[in-house]
Amino acid sequence: MNLKKIQLYLGIGIVVFLFAVAIFGPYIAPYDPIAISNATFSPPSASHIFGTDALGRDIFSRVLYGARISLLVSLLAVFMGVAIGTFLGLVAGFFGGKVDKLIVLFMDAMYAFPGLLLAITFTAFLGQGIRNVALAIAIAFVPTYFRLVRNQVLSIKREPFVEAAKVFKVPLWKTVFVYVLLPVIPTLAGILALSIGDAILTEAGLSYLGLGVPPPTPDWGADLSAGQQYILQDYWWCFIFPGIAIFLAVLGFALIGDYLSEEKL
Amino acid sequence: MKGLLKYITYRLLSSVVMIFIMVTLVFFLLRVLPGDPVQALTGGKAPPEVVKQLKEQLGLNLPIYKQYFKFLSDVIHGNLGTSIVTGESVKSELFERFPATLELAIVSVFLAAGWGIVLGIESAKREGSLFDFVAKLIALSFYAIPIFFVGIVMQYIFGVKLGWFPISGRIDPLNEPDKVITGLYLVDTLLAHNFEGFIDAVKHIVLPAFSLALVLFSVIYRITRSNMILQLKKEYVKAARARGIKEKRVVYYHAFKNAFIPIFTLIGLQFASLLGGAILTENVFSWPGLGSYLIERIGYRDFPAIQGAILFYAVIVVFISIAIDIICALINPKIKYE
To answer: Which chain B residues contact residue A7 at CB under 8 A?
Structure first.
């Protein structure tokens, strides 16, 4: 088996595992992830395999539940980002002229900013909660997908078959779907996988800064930040497990995304 | 050359428009969305008279469009207003914080660039080999580890367990340089012949700089690798090999020269984004730069400070990206600008 395939299967393996944890986590979790107990800071043991945190909550259960939040927010964010970006790209590409110039200007302005900075600006004022966090992250993705779709539209607009479709009165949505959206999908797939990884990182970063999903919801980034407060006391299990969870989740999508974008070359 | 000048003028003009849009967006976002500085300042417990008085003092009682025009005319005059929290001028606060961020950015780019480029080239040379696979896996892993997790693990291992490096801050308060010359502690301590201070500053910067360098390494490695793979497949490489030129020279000189521009552009843009403040890293290590400034002030809904920090960032990014374009045009006269 060649090494590239190993990379792909490794990525798929991790992502499937991640989804399994997100779906079945609540059935596997030995404790309620937000139940407080007296057993604070107990190190990993048979009864708490990842140990417990400052409030005596079971870290293993929190990590399992955390997969749900992380996946939910990042999938939602990428979905919204793609939807808004594609829509704007189609509008700008098809109408051209002043509308196009205006949208491009806005998108370029946003593109100059790193995703995290945009997401921070928006969440800081949208407020917390899954939907708001996802929207803030989505906004950061809009320019990327906008560019992709707009370029596609521009290169395809003048093709004779699009003219022909017009003559034969094929409805516009059909032309758009068949000639514009279908051909971008292979390019999109790689970027999509990488975006999901990016979204997971951004979500974790926001939660780390205290701008993500509010407590006591089990969240990897927030738990990591809470764990950091106790590094001087040597409670390493409080931050190591949520950190590894984020790392694995992002790695899974990055492996797939990297494979897909290289296959295209 | 004439094309380049025209291009730069165009870029400058469109940048001004872009910065204007960004600043306007942030201005209205801050005011339309929930969250109010007076409430953040008083904890929502102050009597209504006090709230009213505070709002008047801060100019928040004016209609939004009046606040906006005042803000714009201030910005045009180079005035970013005064912070709601500290009462200090935002501009001087930003300039005070900037050297810390600049120092961290320079050191981490310096740490990451060499490795990233060399490994990227070697990987491209051996595309598909075990070496390439392992190197790529390492790079992808560095990308996938959240930077704040790297930071915390480093703090734990090298700070708490081994005790080699301090885990937060820029320098021990005792070693703080007496007078600010460049604002870069690594330089100022040396200029003042304060070697103890210099060593202390080095020790403080090691962990945050290495954390950032790991992520930077991964991006630089990946762009070098993919561009070198592209170049090594080209005809001129075959021709150079056929002429009997040494392989090392073909790869490191002929091919690299042509792959250089995208790599350089990426490093430049990464550097620019670090200058806006490595937000997460600065927060992990309590590094007193622009990134921690922004997060601090968002907590207080300090409108002028947030607007100022974002404007500052936008200006840096725009100027660096124009500078990169100019340098690229000078290096490679074949690039045409429209």
So the answer is: 133, 136-137
